[in-house]
């Protein structure tokens, strides 16, 4: 296996005193897409929140490194500046905040933290419109405040627009397929596949095989009882779809 871009080592996380992740270890090499699948309550979202630095999800022990540098103790915006992107299961709306201004400000804040030049309004608008067309968001939607009045599917399209704009080093997609129709699933697959590169990694969290038909993972990991209990190639998705998680969850006991 190539050197890991994202390395999670013996990660233990408790929420309100309840153990959620139990000495979980996982490595994702640069250039690869890995998928996490598992039953409800197995710790999938907790894993994504912990890597991204969401408040309240500080580990009890263990470490998370990106390109060999620990992320533990860094604020979410600091992790984002280093290239960590999280696509939420339920994206939020921000009434009163203009979409394009918000996204350009966020992008330039990350660039400034990395010592890069700001993107001008004209250059941003050109790229923004191109990606908006790719994800299927119409100009009238983009004139609204950020995600305000958007359907669930439209919010997911907006997240894929952000993914394309920010070009992160490592993207975590937390059940992005939830509530999406087949056209939206194809769009997600198109964005991810266009961004696949030797210096970028993805961790895709999902319940179902259908997203993985469009985003072909290099590896699939089964998460149960707060730790990885089984790993395999892309064919594992069909095996889970047919036989369920019970064939592997006994390993978590």
TrEMBL record:
<dbReference type="Pfam" id="PF00005">
    <property type="entry name" value="ABC_tran"/>
</dbReference>
<dbReference type="InterPro" id="IPR017871">
    <property type="entry name" value="ABC_transporter-like_CS"/>
</dbReference>
<dbReference type="InterPro" id="IPR010230">
    <property type="entry name" value="FeS-cluster_ATPase_SufC"/>
</dbReference>
<dbReference type="InterPro" id="IPR003593">
    <property type="entry name" value="AAA+_ATPase"/>
</dbReference>
<comment type="similarity">
    <text>Belongs to the ABC transporter superfamily. Ycf16 family.</text>
</comment>
<protein>
    <submittedName>
        <fullName>Fe-S cluster assembly ATP-binding protein</fullName>
    </submittedName>
</protein>
<dbReference type="InterPro" id="IPR027417">
    <property type="entry name" value="P-loop_NTPase"/>
</dbReference>
<keyword id="KW-0067">ATP-binding</keyword>
<dbReference type="GO" id="GO:0005524">
    <property type="term" value="F:ATP binding"/>
</dbReference>
<dbReference type="GO" id="GO:0016887">
    <property type="term" value="F:ATP hydrolysis activity"/>
</dbReference>
<keyword id="KW-0547">Nucleotide-binding</keyword>
<feature type="domain" description="ABC transporter">
    <location>
        <begin position="6"/>
        <end position="250"/>
    </location>
</feature>
<dbReference type="InterPro" id="IPR003439">
    <property type="entry name" value="ABC_transporter-like_ATP-bd"/>
</dbReference>
């Amino acid at each position: 296996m190539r050197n890991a871009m994202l390395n999670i080592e013996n990660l233990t996380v408790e929420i309100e005193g309840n153990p959620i992740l139990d000495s979980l270890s996982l490595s994702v090499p640069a250039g690869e897409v890995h998928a996490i699948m598992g039953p409800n309550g197995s710790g999938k979202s907790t894993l994504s929140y912990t890597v991204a630095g969401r408040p309240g999800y500080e580990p009890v022990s263990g470490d998370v490194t990106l390109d060999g540098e620990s992320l533990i103790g860094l604020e979410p915006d600091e992790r984002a500046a280093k290239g960590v992107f999280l696509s939420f299961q339920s994206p939020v709306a921000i009434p009163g905040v203009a979409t394009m201004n918000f996204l350009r400000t966020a992008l330039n804040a990350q660039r400034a933290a990395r010592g890069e030049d700001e993107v001008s309004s004209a250059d941003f608008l050109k790229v923004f419109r191109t990606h908006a067309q790719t994800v299927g968001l119409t100009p009238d939607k983009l004139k609204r405040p950020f995600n305000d009045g958007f359907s669930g599917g439209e919010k997911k399209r907006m997240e894929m627009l952000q993914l394309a704009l920010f070009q992160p080093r490592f993207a975590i997609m937390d059940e992005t397929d939830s509530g999406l129709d087949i056209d939206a699933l194809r769009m997600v697959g198109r964005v991810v596949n266009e961004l696949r590169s030797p210096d970028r990694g993805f961790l895709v969290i999902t319940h179902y095989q259908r997203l993985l038909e469009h985003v072909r993972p290099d590896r699939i990991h089964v998460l149960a009882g707060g730790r990885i209990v089984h790993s395999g190639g892309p064919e594992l998705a069909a095996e889970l779809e047919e036989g369920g998680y019970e064939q592997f969850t006994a390993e978590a006991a």
